[in-house]
Here is the input.
Amino acid sequence: MVQIDNQKIGAFIAAKRKEGNMTQKELGDKLFVSDKTVSKWERGLSIPNVVLLIPLAEVLHISVTELLRGEQINEDQVLNADEVERLVTDSLDLTLQHTIKQRRQGWRLAYLISLLIGAAEITLLLRIGLTWHALAENVLLFMGMMYLFAGWFCFFAKELLPSYYDENKINYYAQGVFRIHLAGLRFNNSNWPIISIVMKAGMLLGALLYPFICLVSVTYFGITFWDTIKIFVMFGLLLALLLAVYAAGKKYE
Here is the structure.
């Protein structure tokens, strides 16, 4: 049984590129990708995206099956249909894994940037006269809750659900100590990626908006005004997040 081998595919691409007297940049230009992307393919660090398989095979004058096997197929070799299908499926899986990895790295960076901005907001609140005790009562608890759940989604939550979510009507998800249950909303692999994005973006935004509103309120209207409205601001942000999750989940359900 032949399996996808990044190193073998990379070496095969490099060999065929050189046979065609092309540089990495020239090959990349033909496929509208950078020479760095071609270099990653040839070093086995990644494989071409599934949408590039046919164009790449045509440029190198080989078949897609030969590309995915990383070797030339003799004319007298009989291709097994199941093998071809499995090679294509494996390439899809590897491409998806690469996309998920890049997406997760982006959200982790966004989380760290959000933490820095949040720390700057806390510093400003301290400078206008709020004590740590006042911050704990008015801001830090909500921010901490938002960052806790946003951190779980950014660093640990699975990007894809088990297949049985697509086969059954399930409105809850559990992973370790984390639980999410939304009545009337069915989780599946059509809407879970969107729900995950909305949750991450919404909670990071909420973690920054709450202290910002506090800062503006205390600066211009005083701490008493903030004490009056903070509960409404908190529930308003949570309600907006919940409605956004339901809207996205239902749209792609």
About this structure: The chain has a mean pLDDT of 85. The first helix runs from residue 6 to 19. The chain has ten helices and two strands. Residues 26 and 223 are 63 Å apart (CA to CA).
